[in-house]
Specification:
It is built from two helices and four strands; from the N terminus they run βαβββα. GO terms for molecular function: isomerase activity.
């Protein structure tokens, strides 16, 4: 019984969106499950997929919260 955990930041992928859509999550679940089947032979009905959405301010990169990291990176560009 494999469990696949996918962590993503809670922000939209399109302008004005503030979260991943149900359709995008369904595609992630399908793709991860099919990958487990193709690579490891794990049946679809025995694979669990958990999607964890993390608020952007709780995600760090380069020693900084992501919003600050992005601000600094944009200031350099």
């Amino acid at each position: 019984m494999p469990v696949v955990t996918i962590q993503i930041t809670r922000e939209g992928t399109t302008p004005g969106a503030d979260a991943t859509t149900a359709e995008q999550k369904a595609a992630l679940i399908k793709g991860a499950s099919e990958l487990m089947l193709q690579v490891l032979g794990k049946p679809l009905d025995s694979t669990f997929v958990v999607i964890e959405e993390v608020p952007l301010e709780n995600w760090g990169w380069g020693g900084l919260p992501v919003p600050e990291y992005r601000r600094r990176k944009a200031a350099i560009a």
